[in-house]
Design goal:
This protein is an alpha+beta fold. The protein has one domain. Helices cover 24% and strands 39% of the residues. It has six helices and 16 strands. The longest helix has 21 residues.
Length: 301
C-alpha cells in the first residue's frame, strides 16, 4: 500500500503536536522583553546522560529577579484528558527554592581580599506561591475511549484508564530541563555590587478542555471535582546538586500543568513587572534578608 499525501496530511492534523507547540510559542512571545528559545538540545546533569530536546526555554528579567520557564507542550485531546488527582498541600510541601547568583568579598587564608563567586539557594518557606492547604496534585491518569467490553471500568462506557507514560515523559523532561536551568542560573550575577535571584518553573501545556482536577480528603474520599481547570500543580520534590557543589542543592517542589488559556493568563501576569506574581514568587522579605547578609565578607578558615 502506498501512503497518499492526503493521508499524511490527515495524520499530521490528527497528531498536530508540532502545530500546537508553535501556537504555544506565540503565547510565550507575548511576554514583553522575554527571551524565548524554541527547539534544541541540552545536556542533563549526571554521568553519561544523553542530550535531550526541549520545546521552549523562557527567561524573563525584572530588576535583579529572573524567572526561568522550562515549557513542554503536548497536544492531548478532549476525549482523553489529563486528570490530576490530589489533596491539600502540607506545610512541608509549601516551599520554593530561589537561586542566588552573587559576588562576595572573600578574605583568603593569606589575608588577601578577593572577589569570589558564591552560588546559594534561598528557600522561601512557607511559600506564598505554593500555599499550604491549597490543592496539589499527587498522581495523574487519563481515561481513554475505545475499550473492549473486557477492559471497561464502567459498564457500557467503552472507556478504560490508560497509563500515564505520555504525561510522565513530558513532565519529567520539563523537570529535568529545569534542574539544568537552575544550574545555569548561578551565573546570572552582573557585578560585585549586584546580586540576582532566579526562580525556575517547569511547565507542561496542553489544549483547552483537556485538563481536569479531582481533590481527595485524607481518607481518600472525593471532596471536589472532577472539574475542568486551566492550571494546576503536581508535587515532585526533585533535588539536585547546584553547579559543581556537593553541598548546595536546589529542590524543585512543583510542576505546573496549564491549558492554552492558563498559559495565556500566566504570561499576562509575568509580562507585568508590577503584578503581584513577582512579589509572590520573589518574597521581598527573603530579598531583604539576603541583601543585609551579603554586606558581611565571607570569612574562609
Amino acid at each position: 500500500m502506498t501512503i497518499s499525501a492526503d493521508l499524511i496530511r490527515q495524520l499530521a492534523l490528527a497528531g498536530d503536536d508540532f502545530g500546537f507547540e508553535m501556537r504555544m510559542g506565540k503565547i510565550l512571545q507575548t511576554i514583553t522583553g522575554a527571551q524565548v528559545e524554541h527547539g534544541g538540545t541540552y545536556k542533563p546533569l549526571g554521568i553519561n546522560m544523553a542530550p535531550r530536546q526541549f520545546d521552549y526555554r523562557v527567561k524573563v528579567v525584572s530588576d535583579n529577579r529572573v524567572l526561568r520557564l522550562a515549557v513542554e507542550c503536548k497536544n492531548f485531546y478532549a476525549g482523553s484528558p489529563v486528570v490530576v488527582c490530589g489533596s491539600r498541600r502540607t506545610r512541608e510541601e509549601s516551599y520554593l527554592d530561589l537561586i542566588v547568583s552573587d559576588f562576595r568579598e572573600v578574605i583568603s587564608r593569606h589575608g588577601d581580599e578577593d572577589d569570589d563567586f558564591v552560588g546559594l539557594v534561598q528557600k522561601t518557606s512557607p511559600s506564598s506561591f505554593y500555599v499550604a492547604g491549597d490543592f496539589v496534585g499527587r498522581a495523574t491518569l487519563r481515561p481513554e475511549p475505545g475499550a473492549s467490553k473486557e477492559r471497561e471500568l464502567v459498564k457500557d462506557s467503552r472507556y478504560k484508564l490508560t497509563g500515564d507514560a505520555d504525561i510522565y515523559e513530558k513532565w519529567n523532561q520539563a523537570v529535568t530541563h529545569s534542574v539544568r536551568m537552575a544550574d545555569w542560573a548561578i551565573n546570572e550575577r552582573q557585578n560585585s555590587r549586584h546580586f540576582v535571584l532566579s526562580a525556575v518553573l517547569p511547565i507542561v501545556v496542553m489544549p483547552d478542555e483537556t485538563l481536569w482536577q479531582i481533590q481527595y480528603d485524607d481518607d481518600g474520599n472525593i471532596v471536589d471535582g472532577p472539574k475542568p481547570v486551566n492550571s494546576t500543580t503536581l508535587y515532585v520534590g526533585v533535588s539536585q546538586y547546584l553547579g559543581n557543589s556537593t553541598e548546595q542543592t536546589v529542590k524543585l517542589s512543583h510542576i505546573h500543568f496549564m491549558t492554552a488559556t492558563g498559559l495565556t493568563e500566566f504570561c499576562e501576569k509575568v509580562a507585568n513587572n508590577s503584578s503581584e506574581l513577582w512579589d509572590i514568587v520573589f518574597d521581598p522579605s527573603a530579598i531583604r534578608w539576603y541583601d543585609a547578609r551579603r554586606s558581611k565578607p565571607l570569612q574562609l578558615p
